[in-house]
Amino acid sequence: MQNLVQSLNNNLQFVSELLQADIRLFVKNDEGEVYIHNYFHPNQDSIYLGPKISDQKMGDKLKPFKDISVDKAFRLGKQIVGQYGLVINNRRIQEFAYPIFLKEEDTSPYAVIAVERDIYITRNILGEHWDLIADNSIKALQEKFKLETRFPQFAFGEGALILKGKTVFFANPLAVNLLSEIAEHSKQFVNRDLEDLFAGFPHKYKGLDKSLSIESIDEVSLRQRNIVMRRVKLIDDFSVVLIKDNSEIKIKETLLKEIHHRVKNNLQTVISLLRLQMRRNPELEESFTEAINRANSIALVHEHLSRSNDIESIDFGYLVQKILKALIPSFGAEDISINFDCPNKIFIFSDDATNLALVLNEILSNTLEHTAGNLSAISIKLFFDETKRLHMIVEDDGGGFKEGFDYKQSTGLGWEIVRTIAEESLKGKLYIENIDLGDGKKGLSVHLVIPAKAAAEV
Fold first, then answer.
1. pLDDT for 111-145, tens place per residue?
2. Could you tell me if residue 40 is inside a domain?
3. Handedness of CA 250, 251, 252, 253 (dihedral sign)
4. What predicted TM-score, i.e. pTM, was given to this entire model?
5. Which residue has the higher pLDDT, 154 or 350?
């Protein structure tokens, strides 16, 4: 029994990374009580914020843990598929409980593995193949125990191809990115022989490692880059090819992308916590909504950088559309007309993008919050002038400032953020004035001009 649990501990992290899912390992004590033995999270990015192992102790004894799917798997000795779309921490998940047996002839499992997948993430990364890959991964765990071998660890920045025989069955997004010289989309890898993929590129066989189920280690030169491939036996004719770019530049780029990815995830966790707290304090809903929108604007920048091939600059026009898509529904303003005028793609440095995203968020939030009932249209213009200064103009028809209001003297947090970031962080100039739209209609124009930098207009 102890050997089985140890084998699972050695191998479940690999499965967690492969499936991009949280995994909890449940075992029974001598009294037949079920408790959590360990947690496994892909890249430490967890959708499950349950108690830590140290939190489970009641004196010197672990607290029993109740889970409906896990309990059924222990009782019935078969896989249990949990409720689809269960919401945990504002993310839709589905739980799968897999029984693990010490011997093939056993009818009562010695452990149960609960795999919790984020439906949205796994749909985008593994698509329709998730169930098949998960089933084969769990079967492989039983083989690891019998053969007394283990899976290797996923190295930082490694992508994965899944093979059926010698043919590529599935390619995850990171593998596609690493092998972009060969094909641009995952579908271009499917049903192709692995050796054919790398035909014509210099290729070296570097050995194997049976103790880690690595059938081969190969090195391929793709123009200026060194790609290392580790082929790992999964089960039957299924195997996983782990792909890593060992060239120094790519390692640094991948590291920065991973940092942006984790910052984005941390911000999303903060946003989830703020939403939970908002439900407990409905009288502070307005303040919580403002904080959530600010954090979300920053998170969108980091999300864009984590996915982009260019980690130094951002297509800000694209980012504006993402901000609008997130912000408008939070104010219930879907009926307002939005006109976004950005005739060319505009790229700005990532640091400036974060500041400018916050400024735009505050301008739009102030407009949506303080002109309710009068507002019907918002216009956003983004362009470079002939001297390469960046202009952002936001106009609305919500009535403008009340007589005597001076935004420079305003003590409101929103306008203070706009002034501080625009003038100090971005070194820009603000021009804010009421505008006459005709037919008795008035509005507000906020015009920010940022000095020329090494940005590009396409």
1. 999 988 877 766 666 667 788 888 889 899 988 88
2. yes
3. positive
4. 0.52
5. 154
Residues 423 and 282 in one domain: yes
Around Cβ 231, how many Cβ atoms within 10 Å? 18
CATH number of the domain within which 106 lies:
3.30.450
